[in-house]
Structure formats: structure tokens, C-alpha cells
Amino acid sequence: MISMTHDRPNGPAKGSGAWADEEDEVANQPIKPLTREEAQVLMASNPSVSPWRVIAVQAAVGLVLAALVALMSGSAKMAWSALYGAATVVVPGALMARGMTSRLSSLTPAVSAVSVMLWEFGKIAVSVAMLMLAPKVVPDLSWPALLGTLVVCIKVYWVALSWRGRKKS
């Protein structure tokens, strides 16, 4: 049944509850542009991370893991498999980082958005191709070593992002 005293049907309304009050307050506040000084302070407090730093950390972790696998297993095939797993993350990531940091990718916001999409599709395609070629490229391939290193190298992305250089005040 629809109540005549309200402009919407009875029952839970969209955005009802305590959060709705907060959302209404935020939505009704005017947007104030930042001054140059405020923008500089904001940018200094939230520095960007170079994609090359992330790639370097992933490569370093991949090399360390391959060395650990070699030491623990005593097997060269396991070490090569681990290295190839790291390469399956690092090579496509480096291709994407190169494409994303090119001057062409930053011409306009629209070009930049399309560039991100295209480079991400390319990164996925190269990763899949490398995984499909793994048995031919690495003799006596060990899938557990390859996939384990691949997963760890992908997860290191978050560690590399958390190591932002903050200016000390």
C-alpha cells in the first residue's frame, strides 16, 4: 500500500538509515576547489608510485624465490620453472609500464583511459601466451614452482605500492 503522506512507497527507502543522513550531508555540501598551495600539500602527502618500481620489486622477489627454490630443491629445473613464473609476471608488466608511461598515452584523458584498457588487454594476452609456451620454453617444467612464483610475484604488487616515499616534515 502506498502512503499518501510520503513521496515514495512504504518500506525501506533507498539510502535509509544512518548512512543516508551522512550521504545527504555530503551531497548537499558545495564543492570547493583547492588552492595551488592546498593541491601541492595534497600531492606531497600522497606521492605517486612509479610502475617501474613495482616491476623492479617483482623482478627482485622472483629472483630471490628462484634462488630459494634452487637451494631447497637442489634442482635446476625447479629454479628455471620459478624464474619463468616470475618472467610471466614481470615481462608483461614491463610492457604495460612502458606503454603507460609513453607520451602518446597521456595526450588527453580519453586517450589515457583507452590506453590503460588496451595495454591491460595486451598484458593479459602476453601472460597467457607465455603460460601456453612454458612447456616448450622450459625443459622439464615444474608447474608448482612456476605457478607458486607467479602468484607471489603478483601479490608483491601491493607491497611495492605500500613502499611509497613519504617526505619527512
Main sheet makeup: none
What is the straight-line distance between the termini? 61 Å
Strand content: under 5%
Average per-residue pLDDT, rounded, comes to: 82
Report the strand count.
0
Name the assembly state: single chain
Roughly how much helix do the residues carry, as a percent range?
Answer: 55-70%
Low-confidence stretches: 3-8
Question: Which structural class matches the secondary elements?
Answer: mainly alpha
Order of helices and strands: HHHHHH
- Broad shape: elongated
Radius of gyration (Å): 24 Å
Helix count from the secondary structure assignment: 6
InterPro entries: ATP_synth_I
Pfam families: ATP-synt_I (PF03899)
Membrane topology: Multi-pass membrane protein
GO cellular component, one term: plasma membrane
Describe this structure in words.
The protein is mainly α and 169 residues long. The chain has a domain at 51-162. 70% of the residues lie in helices and 0% in strands. The protein contains six helices and no strands. It has helices spanning 18-28, 36-45, 51-73, 76-100, 109-137, 143-162. The radius of gyration is 24 Å and the shape is elongated. The termini are far apart.
